[in-house]
Design brief:
The protein is of the alpha/beta class. The chain has two domains: 1-30; 33-85 and 126-326, Glucose Oxidase, domain 1 (3-Layer(bba) Sandwich). 30% of the residues lie in helices and 19% in strands. It starts with a helix and ends with a strand.
Length: 327
C-alpha cells in the first residue's frame, strides 16, 4: 500500500468513524458538544468586525440585493403562508408572561379600540431578537460592552431598527419530524447537524449563504394533541459550526431553539449566545411552521421567498413578528 493510499484509507476510516459517532449521538439523543468546544467556536467562528466596527446588521449583511432577487425568482404560484403563531390559543399564552388585551369600547360616540400588553421574549410568542438582546462574557455582538450599550433607555447599538427595511431572502425549511417519520418531536429531543444534512440529501435543497434556516420540530402540532406543553425539542449545540460554514443569515424555529442540558453543567442558552453574540445573527423564535410545512409538502418545495418586518421600536431588543412565506 502506498503512502497516499494509506492516507486515503485512514481518512475514510476517520470520516466513517465520525459519522458513526454522530449517528449514535442522534439515536441516543445525547449532547454532542462540550463547553471547551463552545468557547472555541465563540471566538474562532465569530464575525466581529467582518463588516466593520460600526456595523449594525451582522449576518443580515449576507442578504444582498442579488440574494433578494434569487429569493424572488422562487415565487411561482404567489401563495402566501403566515409563519407566526397567535399570541394566545385555547391553552393560553406564556404562563410567565401572559398576553393581555384591554378592550376600550365607547357607546357615545360609538368607538372601539384596544390596548395590548406583551412581553414577547421567551418561549411562546413569535418574535425576532435584536443583536443587543444577548450577552456573553460582558460583551454583545461586535465587542460592544454590555453595560455601556444597554441601559434603561434601551440599546444604544444594535437595536431592532437595524432591520427596519425588512428581511427578504430565501428560506430553507428543515422538517425534522417528517424526516424521522413522526408527527412531532417529543420534548427534550435534540436536533443535530446530521438531520439538516440528511434532509438536504432527501429533498435536494441546500442551505446557502444569506439564507434563513428554518427548523420545524412540530412543537405546535404536539401542543394541539395533548392540550399542554411539557417543554420542547431543540438544537443540539454540536450543530452550531454549520451556521458558520454555510454563512446562514438568520435562524428560525418553532421553539426558542434551546434544548435542556445542551452542554451539561454549562449555560443553557448556548444557541442564542453563539448566533447573536458571536455571529451577529438575528433569531426568529417560536414560529408556527405547521401550515408552511404542509404547503411545502404539497408543493414539494422546501425553499421559498421569506419576508419579515419588525415593528420599528427605537433602541428595542426585538419585536413581535408575523413572517410570511411566498411560494
Amino acid at each position: 500500500m502506498t503512502r497516499a493510499t494509506a492516507s486515503l484509507a485512514l481518512a475514510v476510516v476517520g470520516l466513517t468513524a465520525g459519522a458513526a459517532s454522530a449517528q449514535s449521538n442522534r439515536e441516543a439523543n445525547v449532547p454532542g458538544a462540550t463547553q471547551v468546544q463552545f468557547e472555541q467556536w465563540m471566538t474562532e467562528l465569530s464575525t466581529w468586525h467582518r463588516w466593520g466596527r460600526d456595523d449594525q446588521l451582522g449576518s443580515a449583511n449576507l442578504i444582498t440585493p442579488a440574494k433578494r432577487l434569487q429569493a424572488a425568482s422562487l415565487v411561482e404560484t404567489g401563495e402566501t403562508v403566515s409563519l407566526g403563531h397567535d399570541v394566545a390559543d385555547d391553552i393560553g399564552s406564556d404562563a410567565n408572561r401572559p398576553f393581555a388585551l384591554d378592550m376600550i369600547i365607547s357607546f357615545d360616540p360609538d368607538r372601539i379600540r384596544d390596548r395590548v400588553d406583551i412581553d414577547y421574549h421567551g418561549g411562546f410568542f413569535t418574535h425576532l431578537d435584536a443583536l443587543c438582546h444577548v450577552v456573553y462574557d460582558g460583551k454583545i455582538y461586535n465587542g460592544h460592552e454590555f453595560r455601556d450599550t444597554v441601559t434603561a433607555d434601551g440599546c444604544a447599538q444594535l437595536g431592532i431598527t437595524g432591520l427596519k427595511h425588512g428581511v427578504v431572502t430565501k428560506a430553507v425549511l428543515i422538517d425534522v419530524p417528517r424526516l424521522r417519520g413522526v408527527p412531532y418531536l417529543e420534548p427534550g429531543t435534540r436536533v443535530y447537524r446530521e438531520d439538516i444534512e440528511a434532509w438536504e440529501r432527501q429533498t435536494g435543497v441546500r442551505v446557502e449563504p444569506g439564507d434563513v434556516l428554518l427548523i420545524r420540530t412540530g412543537r405546535w402540532a404536539r401542543r394541539d394533541v395533548f392540550n399542554e406543553e411539557a417543554g420542547t425539542a431543540g438544537m443540539d449545540a454540536s450543530f452550531l459550526p454549520f451556521l458558520a460554514e454555510r454563512d446562514v443569515a438568520l435562524l428560525g424555529g418553532d421553539t426558542a431553539h434551546e434544548v435542556r442540558d445542551n452542554i451539561p453543567g454549562f449555560d443553557v442558552t448556548v444557541v442564542h449566545k453563539f448566533t447573536i453574540v458571536a455571529r451577529g445573527m438575528n433569531l426568529l423564535d417560536n414560529l408556527d411552521l405547521e401550515e408552511v410545512a404542509e404547503t411545502a409538502a404539497r408543493l414539494q418545495r422546501w425553499e421559498f421567498l421569506f419576508m419579515a418586518s419588525p415593528v420599528r421600536i427605537p433602541h428595542g431588543t426585538g419585536s413581535p413578528i408575523n413572517p410570511i412565506a411566498m411560494f
